[in-house]
Design a protein that fits this description.
Blueprint lengths: L2 H27 L17 H20 L8 H6 L6 H21 L2 H5 L1 E4 L2 E4 H27 L20
Antiparallel strand pairs: 1-2
Helix pairs in contact: 1-4, 1-6, 2-4, 2-6
């Protein structure tokens, strides 16, 4: 992998992390404080649980593994949290976690992107870890958006307001 390809890869990962953060922020802006810890049913997670879980996952994969820090994650506790943090505290925790992860991703070398390591019982390269962080964050961002739409009975959360999504690709 060349340095140029590695840099493009890292830029795209960071762009996607920022997009998920933007969408989670827009979702939270539309929720009331008492909506944050509501669960659709006992088998599902609240928006609050999903954010705590995202912070745990991003910390374990990016900050701990890629950043070579101790793994202190207690995954099961992420789903047991109930009404512990306010909407503002959750968003700040998420943004801080994502910013730490982005700093690590920006600095990671080509060799570290290629190096395999154990995370959560799986064996991934640094590239695999970066992809996992991105897709996992995106997956739960979709859940947060869906639950926000359900709670607020909205068709759109305004993620793409002002952008024409019907523009066709130009094939040149």
């Amino acid at each position: 992998m060349t340095e140029e390809i590695a840099n493009e890869f890292k830029e795209q990962i960071i762009y996607r992390l920022d997009e998920s953060t933007r969408m989670v922020t827009l979702s939270l802006d539309q929720l009331l404080e008492n909506d944050i810890w509501k669960r659709p049913n006992q088998s599902s997670n609240s928006v609050g649980n999903l954010i705590v879980h995202l912070c745990g996952n991003i910390t374990q994969y990016a900050i701990s593994s890629l950043g070579e820090n101790e793994d202190k994650r207690k995954r099961d506790e992420e789903f047991a949290v109930d009404d512990a943090l306010s909407k503002t505290e959750l968003l700040n925790k998420l943004k801080l976690t994502v910013e730490k992860a982005k700093k690590i991703i920006k600095k990671i070398s080509v060799e570290e992107l290629m190096r395999k390591r154990e995370v959560q019982g799986f064996r991934f390269s640094g590239i695999g870890i970066a992809i996992h962080i991105t897709e996992h964050y995106s997956y739960h961002t979709g859940q947060i958006a869906f639950w926000t739409k359900q709670l607020k009975d909205k068709k759109s959360l305004g993620f793409y307001d002002g952008i024409d999504l019907n523009i066709k690709n130009e094939n040149k």
